[in-house]
Design a protein that fits this description.
Order of helices and strands: EHEHEHEHEH
Structural class: alpha/beta
Mean pLDDT: 85
Distance between the termini: 8 Å
Helix content: 40-55%
Length: 135
């Protein structure tokens, strides 16, 4: 089980994603803007952050930069998401900000399963790298 900080300003997407992650056994903290996310990151030290690119107060790109600036040697995996498929440069900007993975938000159930599989792969690799154990 991973502790995940989910940052999303769309209530529907937040709830669907939170429910799906919790159904897989993860603990999910939620934030609806970048300021709240940064505060919860510092308070809760999640195993993984999933953030939308376009969130209020501090956008997702700046949020990731702030997280990277605050971290020491240990690096929390970050997944950045966006529903704006036409913005191909978002992937580049996300990676430059320090994201580990950029994924388009899933629009259909089969896309959601692929999204969750990729998130769990990242959680698993981060747990192994930190010397943790599964189960």
């Amino acid at each position: 089980m991973a502790r995940i900080l989910l940052v999303e300003d769309s209530e529907l997407i937040l709830q669907v994603t939170k429910d799906a992650l919790e159904a897989r056994g993860h603990e999910v903290m939620v934030a609806r803007d970048g300021e709240e996310a940064l505060r919860k990151f510092l308070e809760g030290k999640p195993d993984l952050v999933i953030t939308d690119c376009l969130i209020p107060k501090i956008n997702g790109f700046k949020l990731v930069e702030n997280i990277r600036d605050l971290e020491g040697e240990e690096r929390t995996p970050v997944v950045m998401t966006s529903a704006i498929y036409m913005k191909q440069n978002y992937r580049k900007v996300a990676m430059e900000a320090g994201a580990d993975l950029y994924l388009a938000k899933p629009a259909r159930p089969e896309e959601r399963e692929e999204f969750l599989r990729k998130v769990e792969e990242l959680v698993g690799s981060a747990t192994l790298a930190a010397g943790g154990s599964e189960g």
